[in-house]
Amino acid sequence: MVVSLEQQLAETLTRAIREKDQRTADVVRMLKTKVTERRTAKGFAGTVDDAVILDVIGAYRKQLQKAVAEYEKLGGERAAAQIAQLRYEIEFCERYLPRGIDENALRALVKERIGALGISDGKQAGRLVGDVMKTHKGQVDAADVKRVAEELLRG
């Protein structure tokens, strides 16, 4: 029997509470809150399936990664403790997310799409990013696609 991601999160929360693993319990509670926010968002219709939950987890991971970058700029002892917690949360989220493609595969993909779309200058990078994201959402980060596209179109 296939267990939904929502059920897996509920079981993980129960286990974390039983084992007194506060860090894991906090992350799962936050994810469940984000899912509830999505479920009750204006304009949301339908059911919360695994695709929606993966989208929520991916968005939360991206939010955490931005927070890590901000704390790294601050530095200091308190920032280091916060960064450690954020990195733990990022690792936890990545357990549920599908593996992305590596840098070399991303470069090959972007290069192939540049040829297929006939793009020759950096001004069309947005069109290229949109095309790649349409077919590879969840596998690649738009910022990485943009960076690689600009490098390839420049060079």
Query: What is the count of DSSP helices, taking H or I runs of 4+ residues?
Result: 7
The main β sheet shows up as: none
Q: Provide the domain count.
A: 2
CATH class of the largest domain: Mainly Alpha
Shape: globular
Order of helices and strands: HHHHHHH
CATH topology grouping of the largest domain: Hypothetical Protein Yqey, Chain: A, domain1
Low-confidence stretches: none
Oligomer: single chain
Average pLDDT number: 87
Helix content: over 70%
- What is the strand tally? 0
- The structure class reads mainly alpha
Distance between the termini: 50 Å
Topology:
Elements: H1 5-18, H2 22-39, H3 50-74, H4 77-96, H5 103-117, H6 125-136, H7 142-154
Verbal overview:
The protein is built from 7 helices and no strands. The model has no long low-confidence stretch (mean pLDDT 87). The protein is 75% helix and 0% strand. The chain has 2 domains: 5-96, Hypothetical Protein Yqey, Chain: A, domain1; 103-154, Arc Repressor Mutant, subunit A. The chain has helices at 5-18, 22-39, 50-74, 77-96, 103-117, 125-136, 142-154. It is globular. It has 155 residues and is mainly α. Helix 1 (5-18) runs antiparallel to helix 2, helix 3 runs antiparallel to helix 4 (77-96) and helix 6 crosses helix 7. The termini are far apart.
